[in-house]
Every structure is written in C-alpha cells, then in structure tokens.
Write a structure and sequence with these properties.
The protein has a domain of 241 residues: P-loop containing nucleotide triphosphate hydrolases (Rossmann fold). The chain is an alpha/beta fold. The chain is 34% helix and 25% strand.
C-alpha cells in the first residue's frame, strides 16, 4: 500500500479552479518533486495535503495517508496529524521561526504539544534532533535566537522542527531558493538522507528542475493547477513529451546573447585595497570592542560597457562590498572611484551615476504609491530635474524599454507579478541613465521562465543603453550567461578572478572548485520537437 494516495484532488476558490483533479502516489522513502512556474499550483497542493487551505477554498477528491482519509477531518484530528504524521518545511525560515524564542524552545514545542515528552526529556531530544540535522551543541547553542544564525542554519532548525516526531510524510516547499550553492547542496543532501534513513515519504516543491534532477525518484510537472507530465528523472529528461515540460527545461538552461565589448574600454569603477570591518557587541561590560573584518583588501576594476559577476557563499562579504560601493557603508581603508573620482565624500551628482536593483522588488517599493511615481523617484537626485511633462515622457519610454505598457504607470505595485515587479525595478534604475547598475540577486527568487525573460531584458538593455553592471548572484548558471568577467569572493577576499567561462570551466582556486562542484546541474540532452 502507498504511503500517500491522492485521487482527483481539486480546489476551488469562488469561481476559480486552483487545482484540477490531480492524482499521484508516494511510497515510503521515496521523493516526489513537484515543479512548475509560479501560479502552477505547487504550493496550493502542499496546503491541500496539510489541510491548511483558506476558509473560502472548497476541497474535493481524496487524500489518503496510510489509508486514512484526510479530506473532511475536523481540526482536532488534523492537529494530531500535523507534526506527528505529516510535516512541512517552508521556503523562508526567518518567517517560519518565532524571532523571540530560542531555537531549542521551538524544536521542543513540537514534542511538548503532542505530549511526547516532559520538558527535561524534550530538551534532550531536541538537542539530539538538532545534532541530527548538522547543528551540534559545540557549534550552535540551543539558547541561540533565529537572527543569530545564518540562512542555512535557520533552514536546518526548521527541518529539525519538522522531523522531531519522525513523521511519515515531509513536504518541503522551495526550501533552498534563497540559499547559496554550497548551502543548498548541504540541505538537499540532508533531506535525501533523512528520507532514506526514516523511510519517510517526501514531496519536494521547486521551480528549478536542476535542483531535483539527482534527488527525486519521480518528477511531476504542474501547469495551471494540473499535472501535465509525471515520470522518473531519467525518463523525464530523455523522453519528455509535454510542450510545457520542454519549455521549462529550455528556460532552465537559457543562454543570452550579450553585446560585444568595445576594444580596450576605459575603467568605470575602480575598487582599490578596500577594507571594511564591524564592531561586534560586547559580551561583558568591560570587554574591549572586537572588530570583525568583512572586506579585506579587495581590489578590482569594472570597465565601461563591461558586465562583471560577483559570486560567493553567504557571509563572504558580497553585500558589505556592495553597500560600500553604493556609499551606504563607510570603509576603513582604501578607495572607490567612479570615472576617476572618489565616491567617498562625493556629492549627489556623482552618486546618481550608480543605481541598484534589489532581490526583492516588492520590499523596495512603497506600496501606497503608483508605479509612475515609484519610477520617478531617482529624479530627486538631480540638481535640476526635468519638467513634469518630460518626466511623464521618460516614464513611458522606460516602461516600454522593459517590456511593459504606458498605462501600467497608473497601477499599484501589488497588481503585478514578481517578474513584472522586477521589470519595474529595472525601469526605476534606468530612468536617469546611470553609468553603472548593481544587480543584487535580482533573479534568484524568480521561476525559470520569468528569469530567462529578465536575463534577455538585461542583455538587450546593455546594448541599447550601453549599460555597465555588477551582477551579484549565487546561481552560477546565471552568472555564466550574463557576465563577461567574474570575481569569486571568500571570507572578505577576492580569491579568483578572470573571464567567466574560464573560471566556471576550469577553476584554479580550491574554493572556486568547491562552489562549482556544489551547483546543481541539468543533464545534457536534446529536447527535440
């Protein structure tokens, strides 16, 4: 008998059909991957399996866990099942964890709520579970709070909470999207190990086929609330039939055509021997403040019209270096120059030549303002802004340049999809024609087809606007296709630099080799007609 049997599962919210008669089986110890674009129904499937649907949702069909029907169960019965028989790992651990409770308390909570142990015994078991997911007491104290942990460590805590009672079924909803490649590889390896050791069925939800290519026993491709194709990885990748599956695969390995660099371009951005450190909080009243170096002697050049990549694990200093270039953080020593002029202490006329596109466009916009006003924001940097009429014309021009319509300026940001928001963020960055744009993980949260569109857009703008940019990402496949040169950063230092293709194909530094080995890879096949 299957561990999980789903038959004709449908979910409707009003007149909208969110899931349309999906069916699948899952055996103990097996891993099923649900993949597809945003809005395909992956997360709604997970919520239906957990019976955590919105109140307005109507669920029909059958969900049987070890022969027990879950559809129609009352709340007390479902509360006994959740955590004990079926658990879930969410995409953003900082949101899933309580910021005012220690990690030990939160892992213990699962044991205490289900009455599986008294407090002293629950604490001991919680420590054992944390050690099992790679957080030994010698490394991480149970008295630590979520904000004191790295992204990968927080994700391990969420996994510990989910497996504390050794559930029969674990649902992991995009658990590695925001993680760097080495941490992602560690989390995927951990999840696979736990599934096999506990003979636990697992449903892995992701938008990236490369993530599950070597992990899943079966892959189900979802589109518009339906499963359009389902097969084992070898069968799916060698004999994919549905056009949507082929489109997803093509988008996962999408290559853009960058414009040719002019011969021997002059330097645009010069970073010379930059140091930046932070003062750690004191542990005792009389303790001397301790300095933690974040950027150590970094030097590089970005030439006019060039596309430069910056890669490295979380905590390597990428964000600190970016903030220093933007003038948001002071530097301890060194110099940063744009067009030969030092940026530190420079006036707004020079600083306006650098703009940034952030990872989360929704968080970088004021939701109360319409798009037209949001795009105009950089004009306040100009000593003499254009007239309102000229600004209106510029907004229309830049919206069309990023593939949106003129009338979109009258909408609010919540009315757009994630990919459209990122286009608006790029439009805002380009409105005053900067000389340099910094893309800070600008496509990491997008599904593969939208990511391909944004990368094509960036390449087109590089040609039309003569754009120079610094592209920061943990996704090496994206860096390969969108940059000319690449910098590899570790512990605040640039450990390797050179042509992007040379570094990714033949890395010389051991750290670069480690990064490239950890990156998920799609099998090389011919998609066919």
């Amino acid at each position: 008998m299957s561990l999980l049997n789903v038959q004709n599962l449908s979910v409707k919210i009003g007149d909208l059909t969110v899931l349309d008669s999906i069916s699948f089986d899952l055996k103990s110890g097996d891993i099923l991957a649900l993949t597809g674009e945003s809005g395909s129904g992956k997360s709604m499937t997970a919520l239906a399996l957990m019976q955590l649907l919105p109140e307005a949702a109507i669920c029909s069909g059958s969900i049987q866990l070890e022969g027990r029907e879950m559809v129609g169960l009352d709340d007390p019965a479902l509360c006994k099942l959740r955590g004990a028989q079926v658990s879930m790992v969410f995409q953003e651990p900082m949101t899933a964890l309580n910021p005012v409770k220690t990690i030990g308390t939160q892992v213990m909570e699962t044991l205490l709520e289900h009455g599986m142990a008294q407090k002293a015994k629950a604490r001991q078991q919680a420590q054992q579970v944390l050690e099992r997911v790679g957080l030994p007491a010698a490394q991480i104290s149970m008295n630590s709070y979520p904000h004191q942990l790295s992204g990968g460590q927080r994700q391990r805590v969420v996994i510990a909470m989910a497996i504390a009672l050794r559930p029969k079924l674990l649902i992991a909803d995009e658990p590695t999207t925001a993680l760097d490649v080495t941490t992602q590889a560690q989390i995927l390896k951990l999840l696979k190990k736990l599934a096999k050791e506990d003979q636990m069925g697992m449903i892995m939800i992701t938008h990236d086929l490369a993530v599950v290519a070597d992990m899943a026993d079966e892959i189900a491709v979802m589109q518009l609330g339906e499963i359009v194709e389902k097969a084992g990885p070898e069968t799916l990748f060698t004999a994919m039939r549905h056009p949507y599956t082929k489109a997803l695969f093509a988008a996962s390995g999408h290559q853009v055509a960058l414009p040719t660099l002019p011969p021997d371009p002059p330097p645009l951005l010069e970073v010379k021997d930059v140091y930046r450190s932070y003062t750690l909080p004191r542990r005792t009243l009389w303790q001397k403040p301790v300095q933690k170096p974040a950027v150590r002697g970094v030097s590089f050049e970005l030439r006019r019209g060039e596309r430069l990549g910056l890669v490295g694990e979380s905590g390597c200093g990428k964000s600190t270096l970016t903030r220093a270039i933007l003038g948001l953080d002071p530097i301890d020593k060194g110099d940063i120059r744009l067009n030969g002029q030092s940026l530190h202490g420079a006036d707004a006329d020079l600083r306006r030549d650098i703009q940034v596109v952030f990872q989360d466009p929704y968080g970088s916009f004021n939701p109360r303002h319409k798009v037209g006003r949001l795009i105009r924001e950089p004009y306040h940097l100009l000593p003499t802004p254009p007239t309102p009429l000229d600004q209106d014309d510029a907004v229309v021009t830049v919206l069309k340049a990023v593939g949106l319509r003129a009338e979109d300026q009258f909408k609010y940001i919540h009315e757009f999809s994630g990919g459209q928001r990122q286009r608006i963020a790029i439009a805002r960055a380009l409105i005053i024609r900067p000389k340099l744009v910094i893309f800070d993980e600008a496509v990491s949260a997008l599904d593969v087809s939208v990511r391909a569109q944004i990368l094509d857009l960036i390449a087109a703008l590089a040609e039309d606007y003569g754009l120079s940019y610094l592209f920061i990402s943990h996704d090496l496949s994206v860096v390969r296709t969108i940059t000319d040169r690449c910098l590899v950063m570790q512990n605040g230092e640039i450990v390797e630099h050179g042509q992007t293709a040379d570094i990714l194909d033949n890395p010389q530094h051991t750290y670069s080799q480690k990064l490239i080995a950890a990156a998920p890879k799609l099998p090389r096949i011919s998609i066919g007609a």
